[in-house]
């Protein structure tokens, strides 16, 4: 059955998250004729501004600017179904601080409409309406820790996981559409082994990365045995780089981290990795699946 029946929903916290984590995935299913819907939860008003000439932006001005950046990025990818959760600006970037352990943490102060403070039922219902309208078979978001602890990533995870349950219930908000069950939810994650390999190459080239510690494989991502699917980057590498480059306020491609990231993308077998979050398991295999729809029924146009 043609992949034209694939319907994919992605839920990301800020503009640029989709371009650093999900571009190859989106590009692949669009190229195969599938439907791709991206939901962005905030405008990223409190993102760290990388370019000196834009340091004067207020949070509101930065949010408006980042809307234009994500529009440019999505044109590069070909995504034409982009939704802001609850409408543009309904939820404000919560910001992030660094805790005593050096990890991302919830800041002490944030705007009243910060996404972290959102009523979970209200936010989930905004997504329920999207789910019931688009009827995705597969959905993508972060793991329960937001991958690295950003509060908005954690909240995006909570909203999708709750909305997926509510959307499938015939008793919940029939005014939001007919019930729909997402068959599989996956959580984006680091492709651990490729990150380990790229880190070694970066060190050989003299890039200053995490000089405070010698990193082991377990600090780059999950146990590779937990990774259930990898969408290869190579066929869409140019698209990935153009989309990420569109987010100029947030991404300085000359920064050592992004140089490291480019090294990682070029490694054989590199790709966007996923954990199984909920729903139908992938077919048993000694290697991660190469399609997020693998093993689903005919309605999902399984790979």
TrEMBL record:
GO process terms (BP): mycothiol biosynthetic process
Record has Hydrolase as a keyword: yes
SUPFAM superfamilies: LmbE-like (SSF102588)
Keywords: Hydrolase, Metal-binding, Zinc
Pfam families attached to this UniProt entry: PIG-L
Molecular function terms, GO-annotated: metal ion binding; N-acetylglucosaminylinositol deacetylase activity
Source superkingdom: Bacteria
EC number: 3.5.1.103
Record-linked NCBIfam families: mycothiol_MshB
Protein name listed in UniProt: N-acetyl-1-D-myo-inositol-2-amino-2-deoxy-alpha-D-glucopyranoside deacetylase
Organism lineage: Bacteria, Bacillati, Actinomycetota, Actinomycetes, Propionibacteriales
């Amino acid at each position: 059955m043609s992949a034209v029946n694939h319907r994919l929903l992605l839920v990301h916290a800020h503009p640029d998250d989709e371009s650093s984590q999900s571009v190859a995935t989106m590009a692949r299913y669009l190229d195969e004729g599938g439907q791709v819907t991206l939901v962005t939860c905030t405008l990223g008003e409190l993102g760290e501004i990388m370019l000196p000439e834009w340091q004067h932006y207020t949070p509101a001005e930065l949010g408006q600017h980042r809307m234009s950046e994500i529009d440019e990025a999505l044109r590069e990818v070909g995504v034409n179904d982009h939704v802001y959760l609850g409408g543009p600006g309904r939820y404000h970037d919560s910001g992030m601080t660094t805790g005593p352990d050096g990890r991302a943490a919830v800041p002490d102060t944030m705007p009243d409409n910060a996404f972290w403070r959102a009523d979970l039922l209200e936010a989930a219902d905004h997504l329920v309406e999207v789910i019931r309208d688009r009827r995705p078979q597969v959905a993508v978001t972060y793991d329960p820790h937001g991958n690295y602890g950003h509060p908005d990533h954690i909240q995006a995870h909570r909203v999708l996981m709750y909305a997926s349950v509510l959307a499938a219930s015939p008793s919940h908000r029939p005014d939001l559409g007919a019930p729909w069950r997402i068959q599989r939810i996956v959580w984006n994650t680091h492709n651990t082994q490729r990150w380990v390999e790229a880190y070694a190459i970066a060190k050989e080239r003299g890039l200053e990365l995490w000089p405070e510690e010698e990193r082991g494989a377990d600090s780059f991502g999950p146990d590779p045995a937990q990774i259930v699917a990898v969408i290869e980057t190579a066929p869409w590498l140019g698209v990935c780089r153009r989309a990420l480059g569109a987010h100029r306020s947030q991404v300085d491609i000359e920064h050592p981290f992004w140089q490291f990231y480019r090294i990682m993308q070029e490694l054989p077998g590199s790709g966007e990795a996923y954990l199984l979050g909920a729903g139908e398991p992938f077919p048993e295999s000694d290697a991660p699946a190469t399609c997020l729809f693998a093993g689903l029924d005919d309605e999902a146009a399984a790979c």
